[in-house]
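Exercise 7.
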Amino acid sequence: MNPFSFYLVTDTHYFEPSLGASGKAFEEYMQREQYFMAESSDIVRAAFSKIAEDESVDTVIIPGDLSKNGEIESHKSFVKELYKLRDSGKKIFVITAGHDYGEKSRAFVGDERIEVEGTPFGILREMYADFGYSQALAVDESTLSYIAEIAPKVRMLAINCDSEGNPKGEVDDRLGEWIKGRLDEAKKDGCSVFAICHYPLIPSVPVFDLVGDAKLRNWRKTASLLADNGVEFIMTGHMHIQSINEYVSERGNKIIDICTSCLGGSPAKYRKISVDGDKLSVESFDTPDFGCDTKGMSLQEHFDNQFRLSIRNRILGALSGGKGVGAFFKKIGKKILSDITVGGLGRLLWIKVDKPIKKKKFMDFACDLGIAVFKGDMPYGKGTPEGDAIARVLKRFRFVIKKIEPKLSKNGVSVDLTDMLLNTISNNKGFSDNNAVLSLNGKQR
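Solution. The predicted structure, written as tokens, is:
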């Protein structure tokens, strides 16, 4: 490819604060939210300001979930920030996603969650006309997917798989034919093509292949369509995770999926992508200081603390409610998981737990594990106390896992659940999920 660079920002989830983000209902909502909502506008401004300082890169790409949840006032305010960034000399290309349209958006005032005006899907193209659509060589009107030339002889295919005109999280046959047509045209015109899509093309970590909403539903088919027609890398978001993954089609063509975290929630990153010939360079940056009170923590600790709160409350929430005997056992389980240490749980399961983590509360262990997986470069491989403890648990329950695996295996793809889970908590890919230099010709540098 011809040399070019761009900044990648995903899942801005911009919320217009004047709509209301305070009070009892808001505080309860934030107990289970990964990213900061009330501060999102400040976060976007801080990140855009930092990006604007780099005069060597003139392009910014944002693949979806631009607003918190489709509030029309959030879109209007976000567009103003995009114009400010454009005025600094940047070309900006966006696509929308599921959080960007809908009739029933919400805000928080006092003790209540109130309804505010949403955004119909049909007006999004006009709202973001200056940020991709007016530069497009072709637009699929049904989904608002488009293709545009963003550098000499380099085209960007923007795939909108989260629209009213396509099954959610899927590239159906009609959209696939449209994509194939655009790639044929690019080849005829002597242009290279890369892609963006809100949903991850490849599961960010192996276990996400079992989660329906964590990647494109027909991801192998779509990955092969793109790879076999000359697309060598794609930029994605949606899962708020830092990951870089490769897939090789049956015809031997490789595609790289670079999934990037939510800007306003742990791990809170954005990226700079550079291409020069067959070399693809990925560099990650922390979301910059946006002037919030971190209560004595570093900014990254502040982001992590919110994510930790979310994980803990989601686990405990799963153990709440119900009736009768079920409610009774949930209550007991909730009490045990809140108080037990990793060592104590190990004794209950008759497995060895190494000394460094014995006295750690299980809930803290679970939160640390979740945060680490989303930050990428999963650190809990073989030989670490955490990785070895999880491997022993999986071995203990091997007889149960063997019974589950056939039920998880679909479409001719068998599932090795133990291998899948161990490769989720450890990075065996040979390159970093955050900063990497990769080859576009199938050979890692």
